[in-house]
Amino acid sequence: MSDASWSKSFEHEAQFGDYLELLKPRVMRLVVFTAAVGLFCAPVPVHPVIAFAAILCIAVGAGASGALNMWFDRDIDAVMKRTQARPIPSGRVQPGEALAIGLTLSFLSVMMLGLFANLFAAALLAFTIFYYAVFYSMWLKRATPQNIVVGGAAGAFPPMIGWAVATGGTGLEPLRLFALILIWTPPHFWALALWRNDDYKAANIPMLPVARGPVVTRRYIFGYALLLVPVSVAPAFTSIGGALYFGMAVVLNTILLIGAWRILRRDEAAVAADRFRTEKRFFGFTIVYLFLHFTVLLLEATLRGLDLSLNWI
Asked: CA separation (Å) from 49 to 46, 106, 266?
């Protein structure tokens, strides 16, 4: 569908909520939270005003990425049932507006983070926006079934940016947080892809279930779940982790492996019977899984500040 077709087919006037939706607020919340954890877990204290300004800049950068993604993906969003109601394919926001918003917010977020924090954090934010909007959205997503494996790095950078705001650099701890999100992303999205396979097939997006089939996808989900166990436990053995984090990671990974095993053992008859209920449940749990890992890291940082930490290294 051309841009002109959207203009002629829809007469809706954009509201504030439409522009907010363009920024993908659900994704933005996860970005802001993981970046904040990276910042507060860092060994260098940050003034509250600077911390707030830096997190705001990271949130704006995440929103800019979302707007650029929606601008480029407007053709496939119009085909997929899950995304047809988004601001651009529904005609509430014009593609040119989305592009202008994305580019403007990208520039402002990077520039302001450089002023509020440091150039390294700003450069890392700029690279993250480029990675998601250009490398993933414009190339990987439509080029390879491994799109989410490599492209998942875009969502893994925020805790590194938060850490860089505080320290001006990086280290072992933020790299382990990066690895946690990177390895978490494929099983999380492949569960969604199994559930929404018809959408991706209609849009000709080579997600793993489309390119390799559901059986292979279930094997990959289980394989990455196994790989995620040591990666998610690893932060417990750094300066930002501790016994509390280790205990929570063990519990969460046990539940994760049980869910991944159930997906692995499913056949098409079972899927048809429960309408992807198992995949939907696993997808929902993976969100809780990541949220609780980072929540406990934040709690560990708070306990360290009160000299109550159970840190064992």
From this structure: 8, 21, 51
- Select from 138, 178, 143, 152 the least CA-distant residue to 37: 178
The encoded tokens of residue 133 equal 């909007």
Output the pLDDT for position 6. 47
User: Which residues does the chain have with pLDDT short of 50?
Assistant: 1, 4-11
Q: Which residues are CB-contacts of 273 (< 8 A; sequence separation ≥ 6)?
A: none
The tokens 């494929």 sit on which residue? 186
DSSP states of 86-126 as a string? STTTTTSS-HHHHHHHHHHHHHHHHHHHHHHT-HHHHHHHH
Q: Got the DSSP string for 56-73? A: HHHHHHHHHHHHHHHHHT
Task: Please state the domain extents for the chain.
Answer: 1-170, 171-313
Burial of 226 by CB count in 10 Å (0-12 exposed, 13-18 middle, 19+ buried)?
middle
Q: pLDDT at position 311, please?
A: 53
Q: Which fold has domain 1-170?
A: Tetracycline Repressor; domain 2 (1.10.357)
pLDDT at 272: 72
- What sign results for the dihedral spanned by CA atoms 267, 272, 277, 279? positive
Q: Which runs of consecutive H residues, i.e. helices, occur in the chain?
A: 3-9, 16-22, 25-41, 48-72, 74-77, 95-116, 119-130, 141-143, 147-151, 153-156, 158-167, 172-195, 197-202, 208-211, 214-233, 243-264, 268-274, 277-305
Task: Retrieve residue 248's tokens.
Answer: 């929570």
Contact present, 94 and 59 (Cβ < 8 Å):
no
pTM metric for this prediction:
0.91
